[in-house]
Amino acid sequence: MTGFFSSITRFIDGLNDKIGSMIRWFTLAMVLVGAFNALARYAGRYTNVSLSSNVYLDLQWYLFSLIFLLGAAYGLNHDHHVRVDIFYSRMGKTGQAWVDLIGSLLLLIPFTILMLWVSWDPVRISWQIKEISPDPGGLPRYPIKAVILVSFLLLFLQGISQIIKEVQSLQVDRQDRFSKDPS
Fold this sequence. Notes:
By secondary structure, this protein is mostly helical. It has five helices and no strands.
């Protein structure tokens, strides 16, 4: 059964790692679009020609949203998330595993389920009405809103992967303690 759970974690971790690699390119694109927007705005002031567009502004906003939303699961997988380390850093591996396990079970998983539930209707409605940017010439909003659901699904899956890894870590630690116990 351990092999089955290990294959689940490898699949989920691999998926989020591939998305993390894609995010790097989104970051580069966002910086380039942002630089173009800034240069086009300033150049437009001196040439009296509008070089910028709401499409570019929306695109920059979309790229940032993709980075932030899709990067959450990647960050969790690589332990790059925000954590208050006052006590955690002083704990041993077993204590940290318990904190991570309990935090995932009681906070992360319920939070992702709640966010999927709460986000479903707004995303569904956005797709039904084919929501567009309120800015003239802006991009459609409904595709980026769908990423909200995708991101919380990825975060939920990464939470499951983290739970499996923490349980396996605690099992290995327990076996190590019993094998070293002389009684």
